């Protein structure tokens, strides 16, 4: 899978931009706050209809403009697919082959990507919501039905929590049971999908982590389910507690992941280097897992992370990626990028202006 080109209209600091990409490696070179990350954000938005940096769509639209557009051409093994996402006064519009998709779940998966940004280093030691979002994004790309169930679950959860905020005397437990059924229907499917996904991810990540650590470390990924045995019975058992606290206390919206090296919890007792190696192993494992699930390698976005990794990990990352994926890198200098291939494109970025290097 390759992203041949991209067109931006009123996206962030770009008024009207068109870029054609190299099929192997593309490097965006420039100082901070010049617009490098905005390009990778635009690619992420084209793939997932969401930014990885903000949940506020208005921040993506150029100052004093009402609408914006991101479009691109995706080249797969046997076809080329034009994609387009717009933010308008009427909302979000996503198109495949110039035709509007009525459901976002039918759009996502046309362009699969793996993103490695500084915040991804928080995957191991950060808050649980970071790890839940990680599962949702990656599963949503390879299993459209998961994205559908996740959206329906979150909608049911929002409705249930809103109802729980009523005065206790006004709560109708029969109506609460109806809301519970919706939560159970999609929540059980989410937990099954997550468990299968983590098992497959662990299989790939264990092999990669052994290679990165010269067989010295054994990586284990544990899916920590908030629901221990039966969602329905546990939800019912906590009904009075939920009414008292005005929120839903049980369900996959409280799931988490834990990472272990040689049976030791990395978040609690691992070094910073070990935490970064675990994050790197997971990102590299995603490449193989997406290929296993879809038959296409994803594209890889590396947003200012090369300086966060030592030379050994940089080489492992670049060598693994370039053999499989089309890769996009943002960086302030080429000094720490060693053994670059001959086939690549370098784009100089300064004050929102992008020029391809000769």
UniProtKB/TrEMBL annotation:
This is DNA replication and repair protein RecF. HAMAP family: RecF. The gene is recF. Belongs to the RecF family. Residues 3-353 form the RecF/RecN/SMC N-terminal domain. One of its GO terms (molecular function) is ATP binding. ATP binds at residues 30-37. The RecF protein is involved in DNA metabolism; it is required for DNA replication and normal SOS inducibility. RecF binds preferentially to single-stranded, linear DNA. It also seems to bind ATP. One of its GO terms (biological process) is double-strand break repair. Keywords: ATP-binding, Cytoplasm, DNA damage, DNA repair, DNA replication, DNA-binding, Nucleotide-binding, SOS response. It is found in: Cytoplasm. The lineage of its organism: Bacteria, Bacillati, Bacillota, Bacilli, Lactobacillales. One of its GO terms (cellular component) is cytoplasm. It comes from the Bacteria.
């Amino acid at each position: 899978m390759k992203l041949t080109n991209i067109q931006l209209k009123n996206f962030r600091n770009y008024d009207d931009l068109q870029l054609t990409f190299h099929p192997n490696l593309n490097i965006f070179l420039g100082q901070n706050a010049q617009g490098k990350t905005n390009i990778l954000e635009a690619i992420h938005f084209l793939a997932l209809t969401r930014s990885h940096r903000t949940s506020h769509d208005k921040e993506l639209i150029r100052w004093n403009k009402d609408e914006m557009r991101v479009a691109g051409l995706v080249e797969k093994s046997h076809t080329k697919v034009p994609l387009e996402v717009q933010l308008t006064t009427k909302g979000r519009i996503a198109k495949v082959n110039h035709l509007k998709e009525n459901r976002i779940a039918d759009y996502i998966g046309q362009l699969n990507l793996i993103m490695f940004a500084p915040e991804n280093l928080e995957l191991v030691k950060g808050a649980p919501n970071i790890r839940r979002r990680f599962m949702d994004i990656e599963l949503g790309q390879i299993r459209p039905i998961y994205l559908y169930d996740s959206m329906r679950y979150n909608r049911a959860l929002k409705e249930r929590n809103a109802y729980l905020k009523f005065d206790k005397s006004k709560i109708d437990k029969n109506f609460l049971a109806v809301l519970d059924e919706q939560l159970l229907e999609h929540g059980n499917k989410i937990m099954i999908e997550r468990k299968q996904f983590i098992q497959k991810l662990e299989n790939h990540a264990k092999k990669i982590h052994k290679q990165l650590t010269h067989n010295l470390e054994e990586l284990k990924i544990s899916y920590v389910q908030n629901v221990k045995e039966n969602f329905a019975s546990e939800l019912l058992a906590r009904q009075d507690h939920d009414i008292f606290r005005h929120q839903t206390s049980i369900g996959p919206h409280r799931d988490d992941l834990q990472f272990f090296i040689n049976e030791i919890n990395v978040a609690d007792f691992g070094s910073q280097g070990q935490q970064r190696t675990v994050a790197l192993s997971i990102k590299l494992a995603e490449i193989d897992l997406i290929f296993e699930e879809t038959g296409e390698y994803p594209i890889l976005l590396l947003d200012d992370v090369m300086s966060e990794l030592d030379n050994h990990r940089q080489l492992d990352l670049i060598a693994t990626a370039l053999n499989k994926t089309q890769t996009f890198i943002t960086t302030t200098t080429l000094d720490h990028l060693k053994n670059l291939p001959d086939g690549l494109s370098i784009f100089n970025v300064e004050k929102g202006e992008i020029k391809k290097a000769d």
